[in-house]
Amino acid sequence: MISRVLLENWRSHKHSELHFEKGTNVLVGVMGSGKTSIMDSVCFALFGTFPALKSKLVSIDEIILSKPNKAQNARVELEFDFGKDKFLVERTIFSDGKSSQAKLSVNGKFKAGPKPTEVSREIERLLEIDFELFSRAIYSEQNQLDFFLRLSPQERKKAFDELLELDKYETVRSNAVQVLNSLKKNSLEKK
């Protein structure tokens, strides 16, 4: 469960800190107030990217606050509980071409960093989920919440099969049937 998000110079947020409680938490605000930026920051904290950044619809420089004055860096912190552990992820990006930094602590003890890829790899290992699955199954971009509802039942089944990567199991099943048929054929030929 996410317990805290801190944004500094992140898109439209000069300094925003949000605390979440058990149960349902809702972000409410007028269009352009920064709700999507908060969701993007959660994804970025975990994996060092978010869908719009990964697809190059947004650049790293556009993430760093630019109004009224251009900031030199942007920082996000994410605190969350998973299982019995408490995680703290910190990521900082810089506008001057300096390398990004990241740090992961678990139960108050340093676990990975300062390289962002080290932190992303460790989070994927600990949570047993990667960016692709997270972005398809958990994170839904603005205006995409009704994606599955707009599909026909057949398209919806196909989309869920792709989401869960069930095609791998179909390939294994198909290969097993071919091997079994081949063994049966060889057995009959030997008789």
What does this structure look like?
The chain has 191 residues and is α+β, with helices and mostly antiparallel strands. The chain has helices at residues 35-47, 51-54, 60-63, 116-127, 131-137, 153-163, 167-190, and strands at 2-10, 13-19, 73-82, 85-94, 101-106, 109-112. A hairpin with a 2-residue loop joins strand 3 and strand 4. The longest helix is centred in the C-terminal third of the chain and has 24 residues, at 167-190. The chain is elongated, with a radius of gyration of 22 Å. The protein starts with a strand and ends with a helix.
Q: Given the structure, what is the number of helices?
A: 7
The averaged pLDDT comes out at 85
Strand order of the largest sheet: 2-1-3-4-5-6
Low-confidence segments? none
The class by helix and strand makeup works out as alpha+beta
- In what range is the share of β-strand residues? 15-25%
**Biggest sheet: strands, sense, closure?**
6 strands, antiparallel
Shape descriptor:
elongated
Tell me the series of helices and strands, N- to C-terminal: EEHHHEEEEHHHH
Give the radius of gyration: 22 Å
Distance from first to last alpha carbon: 63 Å
Helix percentage range: 25-40%
The count of β-strands is 6
